[in-house]
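FORM 12-B: Structure-to-Sequence Request
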């Protein structure tokens, strides 16, 4: 049967099911094939916070959204064009995001009375016309999968578990995705279980064949590859990019990387990945708790390595004393905070930007540290190198603020020319004829010497007590303490002269309103700005990477616009800093739903501010 092929410029698909239905794997495989095909893409995995919620319940719903297109895109999309719902809970949890006329693929085998009752459905929505505004494809995915695998020597349970591969095959056919990579993946994944491997491959191929032969889908869709700058690309998540950036920082500095970490969602994947790269001089240490992890990392820096620790918000709270010790001893230390929703344990699998003030001030005493924030998953690579550069050059802990959305989301990444990566010079202290002074500062950077323990002629005392200026001897002198506090602050402030000025995107030059964000809001803000400009309005945009210190030209930039909008996934933390430090009022737009902003809502906010001018 010949099927009509319809050209589309973009599609947003969301796979949703129980946490045991393999939706993350399904979404990831569809993403990998889409990346290989050459589309631009952006993803939003959404994990349940429960380790294993009861099957078929709303807290156990896991979803994976993928936006792919034949042109440059910036977000995972506001609303899916296609929802694959593997059970009633997945349908109920995601139906509110589905626009009228969208495609809805429902696994009817799971719409039993018991499963419907678990989520409060009195009758099946597939049968009572409540889904009439959508294009519903009611398919018995589980039983079709079991039927396709009846000749394999596997249990019924194993056959049912392959339904995600059937769904993946069907969607791969529907949207003209390559299949070779998925087949090779299944061969590798189940190499030790040949019958399971063959069954999953058969389920995937059965889903493809069903799409090819059924009358339920009369149209196949094609999204052509996007035009990219020439180069070698790969799909990458923020956590993976961070791990690669840390490895690169070690190579570019010539320093061994020591990662002291304690597993915590959503930062754990950095530890998992970087542990694979011992050949680059990386050492990993999974500590018994957050305090031990950062203590070991700072000890490694004292010994001449680049100490790194990874965590999320609750872990930063526990590490604060040792970060303060790093400020006092003036040693390089990278602290990576993959932010999640709080307070306390909060929503451990959901994203937020609410650790900015903790990063700025969450230590006792005057303990300033630089703060750097990546803007996209691939930008995590460059941000990690920049954070390492600052830490080594200025002998200071640096906090890198990623977030759950960046950590788990993915996008195409053009592999950089390794030769073009910045060099990082440790400039270790060397013995001389004069007595070593451990706190004699570089006049340009105010950084103290970094002396490797055990080096003859560089013996010195170090610790958490206040030090005398220049000599580093313990000092309780009030005047000395005031001087040392001001010197440490001046060192951090001086970094503003060593970072790029804030760039402003204002094509017309006539905009009177500026939208400024930081961190993972970049994609949604940029997409909203595109929409506003397409409507004929002028709008300027800027995005902060360096949050402490601010770029030197930030006051000038902000004062050149009548109004400044600052969208944040918190209750206004950057806005508070801008008002307090620069005495510039800004308009905050704040949501804390555990989800990234939608471009459409930001578009409305921006247009309202412009129209009120």
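FORM 12-B RESPONSE
SEQUENCE OUT:
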């Amino acid at each position: 049967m010949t099927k009509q092929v319809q050209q589309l410029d973009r599609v947003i698909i969301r796979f949703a099911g129980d946490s045991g239905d393999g939706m993350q794997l399904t979404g990831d495989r569809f993403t990998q094939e889409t990346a290989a095909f050459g589309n631009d893409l952006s993803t939003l995995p959404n994990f349940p916070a429960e380790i294993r919620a009861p099957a078929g319940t709303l807290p156990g719903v896991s979803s994976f959204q993928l936006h792919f297109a034949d042109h440059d895109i910036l977000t995972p999309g506001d609303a899916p064009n296609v929802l694959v719902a593997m059970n009633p809970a997945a349908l109920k949890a995601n139906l509110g995001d589905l626009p009228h006329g969208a495609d809805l693929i429902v696994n009817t085998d799971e719409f039993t009375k018991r499963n419907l009752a678990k989520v409060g459905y009195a009758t099946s929505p597939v049968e009572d016309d409540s889904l009439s505004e959508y294009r519903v494809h009611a398919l018995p995915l589980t039983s079709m999968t079991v039927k396709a695998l009846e000749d394999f020597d596997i249990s019924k349970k194993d056959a049912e578990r392959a339904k995600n591969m059937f769904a993946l095959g069907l969607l791969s056919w529907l949207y003209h995705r390559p299949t070779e990579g998925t087949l090779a993946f299944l061969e590798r994944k189940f190499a030790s279980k040949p019958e399971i491997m063959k069954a999953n491959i058969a389920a995937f191929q059965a889903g493809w064949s069903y799409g090819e032969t059924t009358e339920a889908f009369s149209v196949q869709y094609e999204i052509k590859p996007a035009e990219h700058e020439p180069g070698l690309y790969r799909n990458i998540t923020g956590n993976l990019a961070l791990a690669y950036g840390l490895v690169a920082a070690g190579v570019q500095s010539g320093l061994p990387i020591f990662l002291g970490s304690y597993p915590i969602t959503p930062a754990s994947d950095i530890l998992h990945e970087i542990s694979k790269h011992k050949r680059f001089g990386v050492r990993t240490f999974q500590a018994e708790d957050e305090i031990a992890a950062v203590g070991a990392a700072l000890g490694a820096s004292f010994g001449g390595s680049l100490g790194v620790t990874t965590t999320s918000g609750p872990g930063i709270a526990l590490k604060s004393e040792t970060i303060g010790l790093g400020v006092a001893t003036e040693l390089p230390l990278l602290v990576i905070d993959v932010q999640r929703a709080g307070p306390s344990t909060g929503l451990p699998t959901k994203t937020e930007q609410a650790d900015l003030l903790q990063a700025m001030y969450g230590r006792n005493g005057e303990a300033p540290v630089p703060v750097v924030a990546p803007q996209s998953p691939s930008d995590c690579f460059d941000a990690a190198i920049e954070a390492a550069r600052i830490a080594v050059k200025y002998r200071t802990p640096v906090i890198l603020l990623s977030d759950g959305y960046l950590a788990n989301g993915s996008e195409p990444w053009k592999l950089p020319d390794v030769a073009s990566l910045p060099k990082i010079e440790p400039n270790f202290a060397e013995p001389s004829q004069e007595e070593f002074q451990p706190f004699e500062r570089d006049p340009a950077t105010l950084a103290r010497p970094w002396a490797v323990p055990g080096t003859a002629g560089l013996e010195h005392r170090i610790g958490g007590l206040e030090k005398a200026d220049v000599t580093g001897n313990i000092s309780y002198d009030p005047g000395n303490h005031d001087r040392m506090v001001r010197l440490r602050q001046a060192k951090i402030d001086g970094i503003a002269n060593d970072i790029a000025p804030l760039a402003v995107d204002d094509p017309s030059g006539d905009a009177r309103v500026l939208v400024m964000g930081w961190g993972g809001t970049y994609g949604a803000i940029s997409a909203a700005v595109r929409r506003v400009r397409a409507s004929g309005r002028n709008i300027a945009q800027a995005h902060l990477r360096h949050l402490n210190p601010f770029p030197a030209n930030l006051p000038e930039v902000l004062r050149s616009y009548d109004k400044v909008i600052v969208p944040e996934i918190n209750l206004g933390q950057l806005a508070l800093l801008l008002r307090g430090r620069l005495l510039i009022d800004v308009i905050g737009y704040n949501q804390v739903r555990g989800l990234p902003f939608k471009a459409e809502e930001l578009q409305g906010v921006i247009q309202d501010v412009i129209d009120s001018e």
